[in-house]
Amino acid sequence: MTAPSRTNDPEEALDQNHAPNLSYSRINRYLTCPEQYRLYYLEKLRPKVESAGLVFGARIHLALADLFRSGVDPVETFQKDWESLKEVELHYNKRESWEKLKETGVRLLEQFLKAEAPKIRQIESVEKKFELRITLLELPFVGIADLVAQVNGLKTVVDFKTSGSDYEDHEVILSDQLTAYWLADPEAQKVALCVLVKTKEPKIEWHFAERDAERLAEYLAKVQIISEDIHTGKYYKRPGKHCSYCDFLPVCLGDKEKVQETLVRIT
Ligand code: SF4
After folding, report:
1. The domain 20-231: what is its CATH number?
2. Cβ neighbours of residue 93 closer than 8 Å, sequence gap 6 or more
3. Which of the ends of the chain has fewer CB neighbours closer than 10 A, N or C?
4. Ligand 1 atom with the shortest distance to the CA of 242
């Protein structure tokens, strides 16, 4: 059986319904490697077999969204959902298996319900799409904010992450994604990453941050530069360590057989 969905990146779902746009995901992919951007967004190539880690993250997101929308037990949602993937072919890395991810997901969500959910009050929105028209940019800037709510008494835009390791302080301070979410709701008092860490002893970390006008302007200037480069078709390979986990490595290596074997073009 093949994987059921090709939209584990929620912002990719926005692309399916929207006119041309800019988003944090698009800008980030271009910054990682312009050729990767071209192969993903223009050639519309995708791996035939999806990464188990990405599918896991998407299912955790869905379980949390259902909890915040309608109070449904996220452990039950996740277990049911993950069970349905048992026979689906997914790409597991050396440390992962269907069983291990199931156990990790259950433990993380149980922990979330017990220790983290009580910190969250007055939910304003769940997975809310936003679309900003910014004078500097020719295209709308779109995104999805996972949660806007009071966290520890402050209005916070929260992004949930699943990760194999802890986040470093500098990653949070410099995070473009958090800057983009601040743009989505400038009335927020904080932005936060709530990271569900898939270590042997699963744990949940909160990282809170703020953004000032200078940081917003800096990010928008970067978005403007990248959007102009995209508009004028500046695509080139930017090789590096990230090639090791890039789905498009066979394309860049000219390995046609592997391309046929591993990639598919979506419509
Ligand atoms: S393999 Fe490397 S150079 Fe090629 S698209 Fe991926 S990241 Fe870019």
Report:
1. 3.90.320.10
2. 52, 53
3. C
4. 7
